[in-house]
Amino acid sequence: MIADMTRRIDIPRGSPGTAATIAWMAKLALEGAHDPDLAYLARRQASNLRGHDHAAEAERMLQWVKRDVRYTWDPRGLEWVQTPRMTMFSFGTGDCDDQAALLASLWLSLGLPARFITYAADPRRPADWSHVAAQVELGHERWLTGDATQAESYLGWDPPPSRVWSTRTWPIDDEASPTRYEMEAVLKYSRGKTRS
Length: 196
Known about the structure:
6 strands, two-stranded parallel ribbon, alpha+beta, C8orf32 fold
């Protein structure tokens, strides 16, 4: 049962909540990259491409997620972050964080460096991170965005500058553990609180 594979994590609001969510996404992307079923399917998807064509591999994974995973919102009032395996095999749906974690895990499973990028892109809340996508490195610090939630996107597509107030990138590595980001988030959150 799906409920047996999930657990509830309390995530603060605002920037500390974004940091905690990204931390879980990084953990799940790393776990997904080592999932034999996801790695097998990623390699099958890329099997007919020319050798060493990493840009084509990255684009193929992006188009695959865009084609096979439908965008859906989180349950109302809840930040729901699911594993890449659940996104691909159980649900076939997910919001931007689910699709970004899946895409990053597929890239990582092919040996491609990946990270996340958050966007402050909601005109009603221009200071808040409202969207996330994955980025892949294709040599010498050349990071390209893959946003599977946007119909018009392609590898390297970013939202128009007129729709984005700011961005931040987040690494996916062994350092990107929930403990590290959660501690940073808790410290920032507690420093920002005032005592009454």
